[in-house]
């Protein structure tokens, strides 16, 4: 038996996907032109699936900061944060993120994945309880495998389901940590955070929220769902990433816990990997300044979300439950989703395709992500392309606008 | 479908403790509920029994197993930790786990 035979199930699923003549998991960006355009298969393609919510990957001030940092400090740190990899700039970045949230402490990680993996698995241990939303990101699930705590899943975005599980724990000793996400990455829906926080308070559970997709997008200052819902003080740990709105890579966790810094010497995903290179630290620090100085980027983003969401909805597509920087378009099955995705690419529009087992409830999705950098024309084009293919493939009825016009008022 | 699934178990399960009452619920009740939730994943005519290996004998992926477990948890008001779910292979083992957790409440 070969070492990789254990993956036979996934291999057969993957070859089924590849049999369509397209491999969505090996797309090559031949040349990225801007936050919204790239050359793919030799052709200029509109990007509507890159998590680049503010379009800051090509922000001139961020790019200049990165270039300057390389000239000043080199291309990499070649070491961990607990050895030779903590530069003044890493520490400054941590202070700036902590100040952004009004929290006392911040730890910066090399990726967002490592932030969740390390923080969650180190906050709870044997005799403790970790309660996670069923639709949690892979990094949260992987953290569950690295802790001795008992892990219990509750139904997605369902505070009553969480409450039932906290209640069942009764008076068992041990800490309770509840893990939530500001905006969920597949359908773009956000957590009913106030209700969740109320349940957590009632059962004396700690709250960790991952604002990966909501940083910049939600709240008056862009702190995320915790700010929008006015529960910043009740979120004991806030995790986020630099790889979406801030246009680079890396992760962080902020907290007011007085002993927070002990995590720097217990968290293996922080200790046993090289720290972020100077260029990334510099561009992220600048991107954070841009986010603070330009709240209109948030307005642009939500205007664009409305254009795409309402545009697709009016044509009869089934979408995620609410407006969000991620717009998930439901398709009836996996093969159709792949075919649809391929047709979109051939028509010059790139989106993500998401199929089971990577999706909740076995749904197949075209996952679109909106950027403040998109123009209205680009998004109108996207709706037009998608509508044409949707009608051709029988996903949406032909001419639904006419029917809507004839409906009751 | 529930009724069918329950009958299926009664016919195929020869364990004498099937009807033993634990904390006001019977093993048959638990088996019936599990089979009800697993019925959509049945392969062909092969009946679901206590010996059915959930991820092997049924067309169900690990995520759907965890979702099914949440339904069972709420029906019987118990929580089955994820690491415990990972060690459950058969329908019988799942039923036993539910009954054991019920008894401990």
> Element order, helices and strands of chain A?
HEEEHHEHEHEHEHEHEEHHHEHEEEHH
**CATH domain class of chain B:** Mainly Alpha
What percentage of residues of chain A falls in helices of 4 or more residues?
A: 25-40%
- Indicate the CATH architecture of chain B: Orthogonal Bundle
- How far from one another are the termini of chain B? 30 Å
CATH architecture label name of the largest domain in chain A: 3-Layer(aba) Sandwich
Instruction: Write down the CATH topology of the largest domain in chain A.
Output: Aspartate Aminotransferase, domain 2
Distance between the terminal alpha carbons of chain A, to the nearest Å? 66 Å
Number of helices of chain B: 6
Kindly name the structural category of chain A.
alpha/beta
Identify the CATH class of the largest domain in chain A. Answer: Alpha Beta
Global structural class of chain B: mainly alpha
Total strands of chain A: the figure is 14
Q: Write down the overall mean pLDDT of chain A.
A: 95
Q: What composes the largest sheet of chain A?
A: 7 strands, mixed
Largest sheet: spatial strand order of chain B: 1-2
Question: Can you describe what's shown?
Answer:
With 409 residues, chain A is of the alpha/beta class. Chain A folds into two domains: 20-49 and 295-400, Aspartate Aminotransferase, domain 1 (Alpha-Beta Complex); 59-293, Type I PLP-dependent aspartate aminotransferase-like (Major domain) (Aspartate Aminotransferase, domain 2), CATH 3.40.640. Chain A has 14 helices and 14 strands. In chain A, the strands form three sheets. In chain A, strands 4-10-9-8-7-5-6 form a seven-stranded mixed sheet, sandwiched between helices. A four-stranded mixed sheet of chain A has the order 1-2-3-12. In chain A, strands 11-14-13 form a three-stranded antiparallel sheet, covered by helices on one side. In chain A, strand 1 (31-34) and strand 2 form a beta hairpin. In chain A, helix 2 runs antiparallel to helix 10, helix 3 runs parallel beside helix 10 and helix 11 runs parallel beside helix 13 (376-392). The longest helix of chain A is centred in the C-terminal third of the chain and has 19 residues, at 296-314. The model of chain A is unreliable at 402-409 (pLDDT under 50). Chain B has a single domain, classed as Non-ribosomal Peptide Synthetase Peptidyl Carrier Protein, Chain A (Orthogonal Bundle), CATH 1.10.1200.10. Chain B has helices spanning 2-12, 27-38, 54-57, 62-76, 82-85, 91-104, and strands spanning 21-22, 25-26. Chain B has a two-stranded antiparallel ribbon. In chain B, strand 1 and strand 2 form a beta hairpin. In chain B, helix 1 (2-12) crosses helix 2 (27-38) and helix 2 packs across helix 6 (91-104). The model of chain B is unreliable at 1-22 (pLDDT under 50). The interface between A and B is medium-sized, with 18 and 16 residues.
């Amino acid at each position: 038996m070969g070492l990789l035979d254990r993956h036979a199930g996934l291999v057969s699923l993957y070859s089924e996907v590849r049999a369509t003549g397209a491999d969505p998991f090996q797309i090559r960006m031949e040349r990225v032109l801007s936050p919204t355009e790239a050359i793919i298969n030799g052709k200029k393609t509109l990007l509507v699936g890159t998590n680049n919510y503010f379009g800051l990957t090509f922000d001139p001030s961020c790019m200049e900061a990165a270039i300057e940092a390389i000239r000043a400090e080199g291309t990499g740190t070649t070491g961990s944060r607990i050895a030779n990899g903590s530069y003044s700039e890493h520490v400054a970045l941590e202070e700036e993120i902590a100040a952004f949230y009004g929290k006392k402490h911040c730890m910066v990680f090399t990726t967002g994945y490592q932030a969740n993996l390390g923080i969650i698995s180190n906050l709870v241990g044997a005799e403790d309880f970790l309660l996670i939303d069923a639709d949690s990101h892979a990094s949260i699930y992987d953290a569950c495998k690295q802790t001795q705590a008992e892990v219990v899943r509750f139904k997605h975005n369902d505070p009553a389901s969480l409450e039932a599980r906290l209640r069942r724990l009764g008076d068992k000793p041990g800490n309770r940590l509840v893990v939530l996400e500001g905006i969920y990455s597949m359908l773009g829906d956000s957590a009913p955070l106030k209700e969740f926080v109320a349940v957590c308070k009632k059962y004396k559970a700690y709250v960790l929220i991952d604002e990966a997709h909501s940083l910049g997008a939600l709240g008056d200052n862009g702190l995320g769902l915790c700010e929008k819902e006015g529960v910043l003080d009740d979120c004991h740990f806030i995790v986020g990433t630099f790889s979406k709105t801030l246009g680079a890579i890396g992760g962080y966790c902020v907290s007011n816990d007085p002993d927070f810094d002990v995590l720097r010497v217990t968290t293996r995903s922080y200790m046993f990997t090289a720290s972020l290179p100077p260029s990334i630290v510099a561009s992220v620090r600048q991107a954070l300044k841009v986010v603070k100085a330009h709240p209109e980027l948030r307005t642009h983003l939500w205007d664009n979300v409305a254009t795409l969401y309402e545009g697709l909805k009016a044509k009869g597509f089934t979408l995620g439950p609410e407006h969000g920087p991620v717009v998930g378009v439901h398709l009836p099955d996996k093969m159709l989703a792949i075919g649809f995705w391929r047709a979109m690419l051939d028509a010059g529009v790139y989106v993500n395709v998401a199929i089971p087992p990577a999706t909740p409830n076995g749904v197949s999705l075209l996952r679109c992500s909106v950027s403040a950098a998109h123009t209205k024309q680009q998004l109108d084009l996207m709706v037009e392309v998608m509508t044409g293919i949707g009608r051709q493939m029988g996903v949406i009825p032909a001419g639904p606008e006419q029917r809507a016009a004839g409906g009751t008022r | 479908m529930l009724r069918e699934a329950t009958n299926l178990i009664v016919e195929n399960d020869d364990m004498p403790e099937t009807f033993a009452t634990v904390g006001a619920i019977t093993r048959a009740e638990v088996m019936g509920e599990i089979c009800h939730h697993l019925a959509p994943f049945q392969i062909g005519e092969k009946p679901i029994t206590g010996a059915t290996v959930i991820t092997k004998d049924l067309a169900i992926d690990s995520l759907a197993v965890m979702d099914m477990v949440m339904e069972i948890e709420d029906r019987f008001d118990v929580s089955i930790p994820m690491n415990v779910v990972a060690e459950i292979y058969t329908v019988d083992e799942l039923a036993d786990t539910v009954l054991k957790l019920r008894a401990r409440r």
